[in-house]
């Protein structure tokens, strides 16, 4: 048995990769955004790959920044990592909506995961998931991509408003930062469609499920990872009390 369990390892590696990214931002500044993004993606990826090789040498890894080794399809334990989610926001001075994602898919389930939000000084993890926040009965706050809000959200908003609900759309970068905002109660719902990959959602979905939130595809079916094609284009994460309402609005 390894001395550090998978939950603790996920949280530690996400937080440590986050430190690498914070240092890089401080050292390089924001003048050359493209170079900062590339440096961030690769420094965090290298850090996580070395750490997983050291601490979980027998496990497979799927990383946004790595070559997709299909040997993962034969492995019972696959770490799914996004070394820098919200790369665009990472390169913009003052923004804190970017994240490091570390998840473990074991057999047929998300067994552990952590989302570090380095610029917010927070790491959420399955080892210590946040408690479901109380919801006020006011507006339904739906967090969406800053740059690619899906059309389906506008249709959902129209349906909810027609049913008498007040809806606020909150633009934010990074799937991890958006799902964290649902879990901390800053917003109520995250809906995305039209394109995403397994690494964008595995770690935040792991934490969301451990926290008792709703996390699924937008048709309500379960999120499944370690597929041959890691394209996983849509996701719904919501406060558990709103899941049925939102799913019926989406379908
Ligand atoms: N239509 C799309 N196709 C592919 N990836 C998408 C996408 N929309 C969002 N994503 C990815 O999902 C993450 C969150 O996006 P957003 O901030 O727009 O909500 C980003 O990850 P990366 O920053 O790791 O590339 C982004 O690239
Ligand atoms: Mg990403």
Describe the secondary-structure layout:
Elements (H helix, E strand, L loop, with lengths): L5 H23 L4 H23 L4 E4 L13 E9 L1 H4 L8 E8 L2 E9 L4 E4 L14 E6 L5 H12 L4 E6 L2 H10 L4 E4 L5 H13 L3 E3 L18 E4 L4 H8 L1
Parallel strand pairs: 1-2, 6-7, 6-8
Antiparallel strand pairs: 2-3, 3-4, 4-5, 8-10, 9-10
Helix pairs in contact: 1-2, 5-6
Bound molecules: adenosine-3'-5'-diphosphate and magnesium ion (MG).
Account of the 3D structure:
It comes from Actinocorallia aurantiaca. Keywords: Magnesium, Metal-binding. InterPro entries: CysQ/Inositol_MonoPase, Inositol_monoP_metal-BS, Inositol_monophosphatase-like, Inositol_monophosphatase_CS. This protein has 251 residues and is an alpha/beta fold. The protein has 2 domains: 6-125, Fructose-1,6-Bisphosphatase, Chain A, domain 1; 140-250, 3-Layer(aba) Sandwich (D-Maltodextrin-Binding Protein, domain 2). Helices cover 37% and strands 23% of the residues. It has a 5-stranded mixed beta sheet, with helices on both faces. Strands 7-6-8-10-9 form a 5-stranded mixed beta sheet, with helices on both faces. Strand 4 and strand 5 (122-125) form a beta hairpin. The termini are far apart. The model has no long low-confidence stretch (mean pLDDT 97). The chain binds adenosine-3'-5'-diphosphate (A3P) and magnesium ion. Magnesium ion binds next to strand 2 and helix 6.
What brief labels describe this structure?
251 residues, alpha/beta, Fructose-1,6-Bisphosphatase, Chain A, domain 1, D-Maltodextrin-Binding Protein, domain 2, 5-stranded mixed beta sheet, 10 strands, 37% helix, globular, binds adenosine-3'-5'-diphosphate, binds magnesium ion, inositol-phosphate phosphatase, magnesium, EC 3.1.3.25, metal-binding, Inositol_monophosphatase-like
